[in-house]
């Protein structure tokens, strides 16, 4: 019995160490954003400094001046929120619509089209990257949010996930009853099916939102005006500019860019983890 | 087909219209571009058709080979560490005799890095690993593990290792959750039977747990392979926006693709690189899939 407690003690110590390794970079990030440049250069401590406001002012100042157009990190927030929320809504609604189309109706070519969705799930996104860029050049939609938002109407993995959900939870009898009552097909979808699918939509929305928030490569190639940058691209842009000369300001900017994700995770962690366990959801 | 079923087309129409325009067409356009010498000016349809020349160039390109090797090195170290760590954690937490508490808290903490904006993570580590002012060197110096600062991102080996370790840091929690769910899904009867037969912990792990986890392991390895071979953000941001780090050690395949297209404007060639990368991913996914199932037979 004693030996088992001893092993347990060692394991807890090792696990706690591992947990610390996971958290320390975040601690460094947050603590350093409150410290001045000279304090940071001198070395790391766990004690917060007093330069938070100064770092913030310095960050905002340099963001404004650096190119004369860009107006601070809050614009980056706004851009990221506009993109991520639009993507989440479009992807949630149209994936549910598509999944229901595959679930509820038998039409010619249904199998082939569904297999096409499965194949597209497997294809790495970089394969179409250059074609995507050229397409948007031809459509004159470069440097706009259209290429970042509109394609989310077609999200293969979300459709797949939602169809599986429908197969396991939906009762065809419910649809029949609605049809006998004379409801048309679209109001059946909006009034009966959509509410039933809400849990699946909510689950996918969390991952869609985080994915859209974190997206880097596509906006990097599509967006050229700094004032249109979403946060991740903005962070890369700041690195080359004046803001990064002050370490505290840079740490603060990085902290601010991940803050919404950390806050979301605090509230949704149980939900997120059980979704991954259940469905092996991949970003 | 009864008339109501025609609604099916209406329901799936928006998806397939957008899908054709923004999903399938760009892939075909990339394919077309890979057969031309398109330089990113004007339209790819006005560029010269060069047949398989770009692909021939790809096969002889030592820089691409270097990128291929870099990507595999970075991914390989990462997947081994990540799987080992995730397996150990899953086994420890599912051990019926140890009865460890706090799984959900540890799991949440281990998973947290995975949700972070990768570009922010890259920048964060760029500053943490900084040679002169970085927090890591500061910490190690203070603790006495090293006597002078290590230039982590200044040498090929340590630069690649740093990226591997960051990838492991980002992904082991995710893999742990999946493998842990897999072990929890295995019927307790197997473990009890093994215990009654007098199997040791090691025997139980290798003869019972691991074989039953095989499908999940395949899933983890293949998804990680697909993601890992497309590694871009971290090497890009950690090497001065794509310069590629010391001796080009951080040039991954997608970074090479990006530079070819958006830096050197070799769109035709970059498209061939994209298809090359696609076939590499396809071949190795099939290879992993077949290899891991064959053992079982």
UniProtKB/TrEMBL annotation, chain A:
Annotated TM spans: 12-31, 81-105, 112-133, 145-167, 188-210, 250-273
Q: Which domain of life is it from?
A: Bacteria
Q: Where in the cell is it found?
A: Cell membrane
The principal localisation class reads membrane
Listed CDD domains: TM_PBP2
Q: Which residues form the ABC transmembrane type-1 domain?
A: 77-269
This protein's membrane topology, according to the annotation, is: Multi-pass membrane protein
- What are the record keywords, sorted? Cell membrane, Membrane, Sugar transport, Transmembrane, Transmembrane helix, Transport
Query: What InterPro entries does the entry give?
Result: MetI-like, MetI-like_sf
Record-linked Pfam families: BPD_transp_1
What biological processes does GO assign it? transmembrane transport
For this record, the Gene Ontology CC terms, alphabetical, are: plasma membrane
Name the protein family.
Belongs to the binding-protein-dependent transport system permease family.
Name of the protein: Multiple sugar transport system permease protein
From TrEMBL, chain B:
Question: Would you kindly state one Gene Ontology biological process term found in this protein's UniProt entry?
Answer: transmembrane transport
Q: How does it sit in the membrane?
A: Multi-pass membrane protein
Subcellular location, record wording: Cell membrane
According to the record, the signal peptide region is none
Which keywords belong to this entry?
Answer: Cell membrane, Membrane, Sugar transport, Transmembrane, Transmembrane helix, Transport
Q: Where are the transmembrane segments?
A: 7-28, 74-96, 108-129, 169-191, 212-232, 267-289
Q: What is its main location?
A: membrane
Q: Which GO terms describe its cellular component?
A: plasma membrane
- Which Gene3D superfamilies does this one have? MetI-like
Q: Which residues form the ABC transmembrane type-1 domain?
A: 68-288
Q: Which InterPro entries match?
A: ABC_transporter_permease (IPR051393), MetI-like (IPR000515), MetI-like_sf (IPR035906)
Q: According to its UniProt record, which protein family does this protein belong to?
A: Belongs to the binding-protein-dependent transport system permease family.
UniProt name for this protein: Multiple sugar transport system permease protein
- Record the organism: Caloramator proteoclasticus DSM 10124
Upper lineage is: Bacteria, Bacillati, Bacillota, Clostridia, Eubacteriales
